[in-house]
Specification:
It is an enzyme of class 1 (oxidoreductase). This is D-amino-acid oxidase. GO terms for molecular function: D-amino-acid oxidase activity; FAD binding. There is one protein chain. The protein is of the alpha+beta class. It has 2 domains: 153 residues, FAD/NAD(P)-binding domain; 145 residues, 2-Layer Sandwich (D-Amino Acid Oxidase, Chain A, domain 2), CATH 3.30.9. Helices cover 32% and strands 28% of the residues. The strands form 4 sheets. Strands 6-7-5-15-16-17-14-18 form an 8-stranded mixed beta sheet, with helices on both faces. The chain has a 6-stranded mixed beta sheet with strand order 9-2-1-13-20-19, with helices on one face. Strands 3-8-4 form a 3-stranded antiparallel beta sheet. The longest helix has 26 residues.
């Protein structure tokens, strides 16, 4: 007689919910997802994010835990992509940190931080103008030097979210889309589609879990997508500045996503004039040909963050909670999914031994 698979109901199908579902499904669990959005699009922060996998860059402002989890995620992404059969979603060209002359001290401070925290790290190279020209010729006229972080990568977010959905459903996952979860407790998820019973329940709703997770808050982010056929930059770029850090992430066919803002607010209304001006002026400073770029879209969203800005994974009162990925969703989600599965496996093993 075939033993029934352990069932897991997952509330929330953003990047965290989908990667957790993929990992649990691969480990033999039967997964069911619940999400308030349609499967192919929605309001999740995952659809706004640039998809940066940049643990080295985050050392400047984040705790060492973020770097460690990010490094683990970088090692997990190739296997994730292999499961999806969608190699075009993952890009591993590395990133460049640059600064204009008046902000050179900020880049030097960043370089000193890297040297102190990661002494002898082979994946870090400090480039002069000639070295920069060899990697990204179109950046060399604007910048006299740069820091190259070879291991940093990025993903095409929309393509990845779609590939995850296709793979999960093809492998037997059930999906309740456009279905708000009204109650969540051990072994039970209550939604607009009724009461659903599982062996385990996971909460990956991000800000949707605010009522069940004290201290959870939204941190607003704003991004602009442009089409710039006269620009050919193949790597991520971080522009150092005393007030903000601008990131530029390449997309297909001369499209680029740029952002920098980090506002303590749960407001998801349209981008502000101030943010748009700062982003676009910094974009022009990276490459003058961006002056003729076309603005394709502006997007805003709020990332879920806890009071200490650290991610959370815990099993409490029968509910597996994974939340607080802040502005590191794509960077942290694979490692957090791994930790969540390990916690679930260990707890399930203990329960079986007790029985």
């Amino acid at each position: 007689m075939t033993q029934a698979r352990t069932t897991v109901g997952i509330a929330g199908a953003g990047i965290m919910g989908r990667l957790l579902a993929l990992r649990l499904q691969h480990a033999g669990y039967q997964v069911t997802l619940f999400d308030r959005d349609p499967i192919e699009c929605g309001s999740a922060a995952a659809y706004t994010a640039a998809g940066m996998l940049a643990p080295y860059t985050e050392l400047e402002s984040a705790e060492s835990l973020i770097y460690e989890l990010g490094q683990r995620s970088l090692s997990l992404w190739p296997d994730i992509v292999a499961q999806l059969d969608a190699p075009e979603v993952f890009h591993s060209g590395g990133s460049l940190a640059v600064a204009h002359g008046q902000d050179a001290a900020d880049l030097e401070h960043f370089n000193q931080l890297l040297a102190r925290k990661l002494p002898g790290e082979p994946g870090i190279a400090f480039l002069d103008r000639q070295g920069l020209a060899e990697l990204e010729p179109e950046l060399a006229p604007q910048f006299g030097n740069a820091t190259f972080l070879a291991a940093e990568s990025w993903v095409y977010t929309d393509t990845l979210m779609a590939a995850l959905a296709d793979t999960l459903q093809a492998n037997g996952a059930l999906w309740h889309s456009q279905c708000e979860v009204s109650e969540l407790q051990a072994k039970l998820i209550v939604s607009a589609n009724g009461r659903h019973h599982f062996d385990w329940v996971a909460d990956c709703r991000g800000l949707g879990a605010a009522e069940d997770l004290p201290g959870l808050r939204g941190v607003r982010g704003e991004v602009i997508e442009v089409y710039a056929p006269e620009v050919s930059i193949s790597r991520m770029v971080r522009l150092m500045h005393p007030r903000y850090r601008l990131y530029l992430v390449p997309r297909a066919n001369h499209h680029y996503l740029l952002g920098a803002t980090q506002i303590e607010s749960d407001d998801t209304s349209e981008i502000s004039v101030r943010s748009a001006l700062e982003l676009l002026s910094a974009l022009y400073a990276i490459h003058p040909a961006f002056a003729e770029a076309r603005i394709v879209a502006t997007r805003t969203n709020c990332r879920p963050a806890l009071l200490d800005n650290q991610p959370l994974v815990r099993l409490e009162e029968g509910v597996l909670q994974v939340n607080g990925l802040y502005r590191h969703g794509y960077l942290l989600a694979p490692a957090m999914a791994e930790r969540a599965q390990q916690l679930l496996d260990a707890t399930q093993s203990s329960v079986k031994q007790a029985i």
